[in-house]
Design a protein that fits this description.
Length: 464
């Protein structure tokens, strides 16, 4: 075994959980709009932002932008169509389509019905009538809750058909707002079945929930309200709480059994987190590893590099303690020992997000796609997912890479991103405000929003 901080010297890859967890992700497809806006150059100049703040401080280089004919529903249909073609699926093979989004196109009608209607323009009228669909809304954690739910349906074995989970979102904030440069758009479709090729879910879910105003979008509002610093802290609090819950359950059930001096992350090769912006996954992993390492052999190495962590009993002034503790957390995140673990376990999951931006419910699965495209995951390795939804809640769960993972073809996502069309700041602003009525790229072999009628009903077509 390697000597990466957070990896045990023992054999991590016991086959027990692979045998116990035979339901999971067999394949996935990703759709990203064909337009993008560079965040350096014209954007950073006009917004008076140092480009280094964007590319290094935030970690985003390009923002995916939907064209005039696109919305969250068309993107969902596009990723599902690609998944079906990749896996040679027919409508009758799919029993359920669960869709996670916070970019709903209707207050009542499930987006999945629009998606099914679009797919029937390709596969034939009524071809999906035996398939059920529902929409999950819980900010950015919605798709993960959909995945948890559909995995239990598949595991029950009462229906031989497979399930599909779709994440689809357009992250939109007001022009000139602090959240503007974290926008993005895209959709991810996951094929969930028994005996999956990519990863088997271990069906342990650590959760954390509380009522917060960190991020929300009131009824009738086109853009979200974000309380930035508070939102970041809610994310970290929820992730730490959910990870502690996961670790306790995993130990109780014997899935992860740290020996003296070991900790939970010694048993995990890949940590994936919700990615509102790539730098946030570094903050999240620092919070998790600092929490997990504190009572393990790793802590001596941390203290040798950055000193002893402040303890409240040594302070008469609570505010001074909190300031010193925050400084220690920053030192931990900059430490060589942490950075070595971060580079090995976390960093590569944000590769695609740097070129796309935030896709809300799908960002954590875009992280999985990054690892798969880079061929970073090997059979039997454990992946631990930390999903977050503002408002706020977190879910931490794990999966084991299956022997068939190497047989799943690449999607060519990095090459596809390089073929996108760069747009100007003016073109982006017109599209953002809904004033760009004509598509910048002529639709071809894709679903389009054709019109919205006098009742507000949306009509979609497939352009060949």
């Amino acid at each position: 075994m390697s000597s990466i901080p957070g990896n045990s010297s023992k054999e991590i890859s016991s086959d027990k959980s692979l045998l116990r967890a035979a339901v999971g992700i067999d394949d996935m497809a990703v759709y990203i709009p064909s337009l993008y806006l560079p965040l350096t150059g014209e954007f950073s100049r006009q917004r008076d932002i140092d480009p280094e703040k964007l590319t290094r401080g935030i970690g985003v280089e390009r923002m995916a932008v939907p064209d005039a004919h696109e919305d969250a529903a068309t993107m969902a249909a596009m990723s599902l169509l690609e998944l079906m073609r990749r896996c040679d699926l027919q409508p009758g093979d799919i029993g359920k389509i669960y869709l996670g989004t916070e970019s709903a196109v209707d207050e009542a009608k499930a987006m999945g019905t629009y998606v099914i209607g679009m797919l029937e323009r390709v596969y034939g009228s009524g071809s999906f009538q035996g398939c059920s669909t529902v929409e999950f809304k819980s900010a950015c954690i919605g798709t993960t809750l959909a995945l948890e739910s559909i995995s239990y349906w598949v595991a029950a074995g009462e229906d031989e058909r497979i399930g599909v989970v779709i994440a689809t979102d357009v992250a939109r904030y007001p022009l000139h707002s602090p959240g503007e440069y974290t926008q993005g758009a895209g959709s991810v479709s996951l094929l969930v079945k028994r005996d999956p090729r990519i990863a088997a879910l271990e069906q342990i879910y650590g959760c954390f929930t509380r009522d917060e105003n960190d991020f929300f979008r009131p009824l009738g509002c086109a853009t979200a309200t974000v309380n930035g610093k508070h939102s970041n802290q809610c994310y970290l609090d929820a992730m730490q709480g959910a990870f502690a819950s996961y670790a306790a359950q995993a130990a109780q059930k014997g899935l992860i059994a740290p020996k003296r001096g070991e900790c939970t992350t010694d048993w995990i090769e890949h940590l994936l987190f919700h990615i509102p912006y790539p730098r946030m996954v570094e903050y999240a992993s620092a919070a998790i590893l600092r929490q997990d390492w504190r009572n393990s052999r790793h802590w001596k190495n941390v203290e040798a590099e950055i000193g002893v962590e402040p303890e409240p009993q040594n302070y008469a002034d609570l505010e001074k303690y909190q300031v010193d503790l925050a400084g220690y957390a920053r030192s931990f995140a900059r430490s060589r020992y942490f950075q070595q673990a971060y580079n090995a376990k976390v960093k590569d999951s944000a590769a695609l997000s740097r070129q796309v931006g935030n896709i809300y419910t799908g960002s954590i699965y875009l992280g999985l796609a990054s690892l798969l495209e880079l061929r970073k995951v090997q059979a039997k390795e454990r992946l631990c997912f930390g999903a977050y939804g503002s408002g706020c809640s977190a879910l931490v769960f794990s999966a084991r890479a299956m022997p068939g993972i190497s047989s799943v073809p690449s999607r060519g996502l990095f090459e596809r991103l390089e073929r996108r069309r760069e747009i100007s700041l003016q073109e982006y602003e017109l599209l953002h405000e809904g004033e760009g009525k004509e598509s910048l790229n002529r639709p071809s072999e894709e679903f389009v929003l054709a019109r919205i009628d006098h009742q507000g009903y949306r009509h979609y077509e497939y352009v060949r």
